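Many introductory courses stop at the sequence. We go one step further.
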Amino acid sequence: MPVEDQILLTLMWLRMGLVIANLAFHFRISTAAVSHIFSFWIPHLARLTRKYLIFWLSTKRIRMSLPDVFRNMPPMTCIIDCFEVYSDRPQNLLRRGQMFSFYRSHNTVKVLDAVAPNGFVTFISKAYGGRASDRYITASSVLLYHLEDGNDVLADRGFTIADILTIGVELALPSFTKGKQLAARDVVVSRRLAKLRIHVERSIRRMKCVRILNHVPSSYLAKQNNIDDILVTVAGLCNLQSALIKEPQGAGSDE
């Protein structure tokens, strides 16, 4: 089969979530050949994605592409959030316990996602079981090594990670009262931060439109690299789509 068709087959599998038998029928090859194509191209696409499509943006680049909605806020470096993808129930009891999400009441794969203010995915963590907390995933990922003194990170109030961030990195969270009434200014700031978080949620929704992430079969959970390569490839393909937030004119002049 020509290389172009092999890549097309792989992308169709990711985007449409077609079963192997359907793809085999469509391309007139055996199901074994389809599986071989997947096992060959997914790692290659993931490698290319990590090199060319998902990368940490410089402070200069972030400022040049800063959407207007961020202009009067602290200079955000990234917005972070975790998302979960439903999965089959593992046969291994220990693995099953690690993957059970009490929030979803289901077995899930959980991932940390970081996007720049303009919606560009700059980081995607490896996959964790649904039982892992946001704090644990953040602390275990290499995201912390990207953050520098003077960076601001926007997150949901559930991210209790201020004490594990590099010195000089500020964590911006929407306020919660715990029974106390907020000052009028704090209410305004909190509401604005909550609205800005919508952009990372939109990024996650875009990734979940790729149907392979509707439900992860147990066969892809057997090896950690399998699901990690799929996740990073999906995130990279989303970065090739039109911008989530329109950049100001001239934002790309540093290329």
